[in-house]
Amino acid sequence: MYKGLYKNIELKVYGVEKQIEYDWIVKPGGNSGEIRFEYKNVKGTRIDNDGNLIIESNFGELLHKCPVSYQEIDKKKIIVKAEFKKISKNMYGFEVNEYDRNYKLIIDPVVLAYSTYLGGNDDDYGSEIAADSSGNAYVTGQTDSNDFPTINQCQNDELNMDIFVTKIDTTSSGVSSLIYSTYLGGDGYDSGYGIAVDSSGNVCVTGWTDSTNFPNTNQYQNFQGGGADAFVTRLEFDGPLITVTSPNGGESWSLGSTKNITWDALGISGNVRIVLLKDGTRIGTIADNIGSASGSYSWTVGQYNGGTAVPGTGYKVKVKEKGTTNLDHSNNPFTISSAAPPQISLNRTEIYFGAATSGISTSSQSLFVDNSGGGTLNWSITDDSAWLNCSPSSGTNAGSVTVSVDVTGLSAGTSQVPLPFPMPQPLILPRQYLSH
Predict the structure, then answer these.
(1) Which of 57, 82, 255, 353 has its CA 20 to 30 A from that of 301?
(2) Which domains, from first to last, does the chain contain?
(3) pLDDT at 76
(4) Quick one: 184 exposed, middle or buried, by C-beta within 10 A (0-12, 13-18, 19+)?
């Protein structure tokens, strides 16, 4: 914790799982507009189209994710929009929307999206990496470690200097992030140099081998030609499978609306956890301990354990079987749009009641109230006619209303009354007609 950098502003630097993070803590009386940070001895800096801050160095690019800013008020997490702001060459600050200055403000950019060791007790070298649309990383290289991390492997033991092929879920950490990891090779020296992944998640690896017993099947050439030969290997993951079907990319779901997250589960009987991701970074848990066989979860869009998502693009969901490496993400990002206001809609604009003689009431009728907008619609019916009854007289979102009349004491002719629904939107009000 760094204190006194600015008046009533502190800087907290820490690690969360696989990420390095820093938080600017603006206390009451502090001014977020005073914060400045400058990068020296770099090739350049820029803010990309997604609001991320990119620092170009001689060793590559460092990405600071667009900041997440929030306040905690009455045990609730209130999101405050914040963006990087360029002050001068290679110097930046923050532009923050209005917020409650009686409470502290947290400005939280993520510095490092993913980084991990991968290896064992001897020399290990990574040569090539590929990624799929869900952000999974596929890595190959060579290892001399007899304890290289393996899971769901096609080859159990290291025979010499072997190839490794590893698939990593970059939105998780620890053992659960390894989807599969395997040795590949024979009793000679083997090294992987290239890797590619297709849309089905199958992996093709190439490199060189001088092993006479290199594993092969359905081969073009079943013998080593001499010296070091090239190899081409295709790996298919065959096992329990989760496939996210919705949202799977391209959807625009309104914040606060109710949508179904759906998935297919093949050979899976355990419970699943559903996680919300944004730009490949874990935001929070949507639901936990959901039966995998159900294949569906009704989600209030944007809600997760501990907070509410900010409208924007780049969102995905991850469904993972608990205690295993079986998981899947949305193939492509979806959008969470700003919440639409509630809008009342009625299936009828008028109801007609007829009575043959005075004192004989006709059967009740019904009308259906629905919310054609977003959010939550709270409606009520008010009438001042003793001969008219509506039940229920209030409700939330969709519901059926039973309308009945009592003609006792009414004069022959036609009586009519509007049913006002006190809502801010313009309405077509139903009218009830009584003839006798």
Answers:
(1) 82
(2) 2-108 (no CATH), 124-235 (no CATH), 241-337 (2.60.40.10), 344-435 (2.60.40.10)
(3) 85
(4) buried
